[in-house]
């Protein structure tokens, strides 16, 4: 689910493309030991080659209260990677002549604005113009409550279109919620059953299903937010994301899913080619993730404090998947470390020594920062010996002090440099820079 302070996954970096003769599992273990010892990240990771898992590792805690550690069978919420499963189900419906890419939305939900002009293809490829309901400030007031199809459909239908269907692409979870309901109508089964019958059981994915309330006694992971101390995150009720983000799984199951998908065990080669055809940055339930002169297909996800990624390099027959449930560290850096290792580089182990700073020094940065044309106000306050930031309508986040009046929030790749004498804060993220003034 998307916020302004975005969780960004970007593999498009300049690295050596030499294949590793063997992966250094001892160094990977040392890396994940460091993350665990410094409470930087909790989760599991898996690497596959030619369809076989060659490395898997759990680190941190699946349940911090009971100190239960994750293993390769621990189930996590995978967020938007669920869209790949939904897309597979749609193409299965198309291959059974239950739908076509040209089927219009008004055959199912005529109350949605522009429904007569929106096709199944538009929904799959985020070209519908339908407002993303998770972008609404109201979303966080109800996301933990069970909702019916009728209630959510009214929420979606009440928003005006943000552009004419088919004219461009803009990511919207609403598209895949609508696709979930369409699938339920054409298959005459609940989405939960379809995932199990048409994907999980045929592939032997024993730890993949549509989630419910998190079941700790069934080896499911909770997620945590770091605000001074680690706090248990709220749980999105899975009736809301459904095919947009309600599946739980493991990295090893995700790798098996991707391998099977590209071996055409789930859909035909023609359907797979259509699914992975990229327009304006989006396929039909799949994303292309470049790695210098290579490319992989997969998806990323975020729901509550879970962060996930799964990627398959077709030419190399290599897969990487990770799911995290607590992070004081950018999960993208884990991907970079693993890919560096696999593709023949020798990445350095990180250092987590934090620069010390007094409470008096921190107090000079406290305040509310904004700018004309910038849609949010960034509030900065102190809790003990740490600054906490919070954007309007969003969750609070801890700010690590890096020295010289500069702070960071690694999870989102966010850097904030303060100039207290000028009441100024420069915020940088994903190549963008914003100059925000402290309100007096």
Automatic annotation (TrEMBL):
The UniProt record lists the Beta-lactamase-related domain at 36-334
Keyword Translocase applies: no
Q: Which keywords are on file for this protein? A: Carboxypeptidase, Hydrolase, Protease, Signal
A GO molecular-function term, please?
carboxypeptidase activity
Superkingdom is: Bacteria
The species this protein belongs to is: Mongoliibacter ruber
Instruction: Kindly provide the name given to this protein in its UniProt entry.
Output: D-alanyl-D-alanine carboxypeptidase
Please tell me whether the keyword Protease is annotated for this protein: yes
The protein's matches in Gene3D superfamilies, at most eight in alphabetical order, are given as:
DD-peptidase/beta-lactamase superfamily (3.40.710.10)
What residue stretch is flagged as signal peptide?
A: 1-20
């Amino acid at each position: 689910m998307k916020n302004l302070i975005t969780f960004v996954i970007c593999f498009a970096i300049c690295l050596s493309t030499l294949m590793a003769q063997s992966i250094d599992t001892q160094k990977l273990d040392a890396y994940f030991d460091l993350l665990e010892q410094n409470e930087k990240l909790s989760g599991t990771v898996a690497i596959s080659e030619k369809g076989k898992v060659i490395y898997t590792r759990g680190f941190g805690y699946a349940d911090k209260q009971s100190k239960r550690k994750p293993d390769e069978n621990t189930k996590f919420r995978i967020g938007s990677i669920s869209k790949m499963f939904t897309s597979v189900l749609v193409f299965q419906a198309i291959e059974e002549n239950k739908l076509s890419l040209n089927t219009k939305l008004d055959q199912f939900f005529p109350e949605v604005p522009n429904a007569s002009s929106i096709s199944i293809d538009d929904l799959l490829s985020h070209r519908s113009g339908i407002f993303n309901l998770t972008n609404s400030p109201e979303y966080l007031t109800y996301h933990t409550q069970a909702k019916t199809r009728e209630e959510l459909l009214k929420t979606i239908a009440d928003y005006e279109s943000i552009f004419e269907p088919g004219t461009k692409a803009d990511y919207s979870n609403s598209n895949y919620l609508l696709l979930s309901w369409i699938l339920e109508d054409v298959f005459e089964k609940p989405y939960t059953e379809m995932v199990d019958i048409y994907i999980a059981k045929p592939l032997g994915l024993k730890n993949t299903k549509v989630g419910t309330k998190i079941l700790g006694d069934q080896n499911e992971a909770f997620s945590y937010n770091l605000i001074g101390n680690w706090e248990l995150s709220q749980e999105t009720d899975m009736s809301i994301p459904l095919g947009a983000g309600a599946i739980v799984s493991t990295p090893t199951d995700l790798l098996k899913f991707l391998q099977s998908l590209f071996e055409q065990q789930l859909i035909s080669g023609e359907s797979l080619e259509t699914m992975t055809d990229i327009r304006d940055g989006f396929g039909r339930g799949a994303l292309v993730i470049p790695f210098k002169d290579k490319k992989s297909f997969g998806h990323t996800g975020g729901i509550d404090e879970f962060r996930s990624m799964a990627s398959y390099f077709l030419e190399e027959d290599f897969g990487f998947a990770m799911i995290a449930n607590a992070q004081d560290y950018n999960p993208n850096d884990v991907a970079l470390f693993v890919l560096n290792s696999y593709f023949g580089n020798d990445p350095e182990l990180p250092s987590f020594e934090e620069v010390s700073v007094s409470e008096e020094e921190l107090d000079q940065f406290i305040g509310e920062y904004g700018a004309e044309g910038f849609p949010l106000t960034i509030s900065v306050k102190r809790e003990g010996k740490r600054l906490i930031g919070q954007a309007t309508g969003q969750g609070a986040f801890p700010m690590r002090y890096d020295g010289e009046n500069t702070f960071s929030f690694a999870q989102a790749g966010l850097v904030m440099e303060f100039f207290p004498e000028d009441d100024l804060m420069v915020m940088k993220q994903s190549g963008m820079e914003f100059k925000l003034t402290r309100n007096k």
